[in-house]
Task: inverse folding
């Protein structure tokens, strides 16, 4: 199995997913999009950085942010992980997302700003993350740039031989814990 579909995601989030610290994504779509659509159940991660990330990443993750910032360039992109969507939950309740703040890298201020952007709901994606058997480094081309969620890479990446970051039971335990905290209030 191979794919060239990649989700643009903050490098620090990809690193947290790779370490099993985070098992979900919170998405609303890019500026050019009218909400967030899941293009495929399986996709690669295209890690991104921007210069003021330390202001929107919780202090607990600053050392992880520093480590990814030192290895991320603007000329190439290194693909090392892919994900499979386990469940997608839309919500228009910010308080519900604050209940699970121990499970994502964002500051409350950033999450509120992102949540308030546009009328579309926030989508919480539980994702099972895998490490590729070999990382793939590709040149960054102009069509990858811009504020959009999805990019079609010029090359396909082989997914066979990938190893899950967490075992199925570890993933299910984390997911159950998050959902028990999440559903203490209505999601809509």
Result:
């Amino acid at each position: 199995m191979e794919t060239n579909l990649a989700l643009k995601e903050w490098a620090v989030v990809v690193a947290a997913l790779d370490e099993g610290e985070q098992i979900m994504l919170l998405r609303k779509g890019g500026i050019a999009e009218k909400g967030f659509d899941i293009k495929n159940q399986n996709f690669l991660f295209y890690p991104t950085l921007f210069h003021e990330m330390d202001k929107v990443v919780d202090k607990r993750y600053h050392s992880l942010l520093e480590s990814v910032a030192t290895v991320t360039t603007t000329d190439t992109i290194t693909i090392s992980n892919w994900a499979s969507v386990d469940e997608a939950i839309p919500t228009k309740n910010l308080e519900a997302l604050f209940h699970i703040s121990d499970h994502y890298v964002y500051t409350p201020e950033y999450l509120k700003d992102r949540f308030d952007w546009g009328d579309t709901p926030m989508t919480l994606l539980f994702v099972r993350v895998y490490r590729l058997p070999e990382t793939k480094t590709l040149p960054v081309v102009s069509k990858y740039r811009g504020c959009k969620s999805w990019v079609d890479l010029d090359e396909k990446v082989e997914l066979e031989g990938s190893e899950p970051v967490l075992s199925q039971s570890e993933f299910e335990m984390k997911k159950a814990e998050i959902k028990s905290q999440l559903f203490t209030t209505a999601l809509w």
User: Anything to note?
Assistant: The first helix runs from residue 11 to 18.
